[in-house]
Fold:
Amino acid sequence: MNSEDGRVRLILELRHAGIDDLRVLNAIERVPRELFVPRAFAHQAWENVALPIDCGQTISQPAIVGRMTEALRLDDRMKVLEIGTGSGYQTAVLSYLCRRVYTIERHRELLQQAETRLALLRRRNITARPGDGALGWPEQAPFERILVTAAAIDIPPKLSKQLAVGGIMVLPIGDDAKSQRIVRVLRDESGLNIEDLGPVKFVPLISGRTDERVAG
Structure:
């Protein structure tokens, strides 16, 4: 099956899975997923599966990317913080749906690879840096939207403080892969309101010293 056939099949599969935001589907269709997976898995790039990448991480299943992106309720005026750049695939999808993406990755090797890919796609509304994602990006706060792509034990307090009033944060919660849930956090004048969006499985969100193996 060629890449174009794979795209069509994947988009149909995502629609059948209940992802019906046309802007989100269009963004997923526009991002060449084969650019973000290891060459050995390029033949699976347009399948609805998670795939391994470097540093023991994964590129998420497209259905999860679609669900979490749709849950953000994005528009093109918003400033978004992404925790966990990974391969850069989710970052690229976000970049088609908002004004600017600020993305943090603790593994410098992954970040450098992602920046190279995003430059090839000429995505110019993305700012990336290495760091501890649980600390957020206070210099750029507040953010209208925050997306966390690793599972936290609870809602990270520093991230919730960087969420604008009226803002939305979407993240997986749970310290056991068998009990993780996607939640949508809405911040209003009175505090945080949490909505459960269903089960999921992510690598854990690790806070503390970042990976210094590759020079910045």
Q: What stands out?
A: The longest strand covers residues 163-173. The mean pLDDT is 91. The CA atoms of residues 74 and 200 lie 21 Å apart. The longest helix spans residues 3-16.
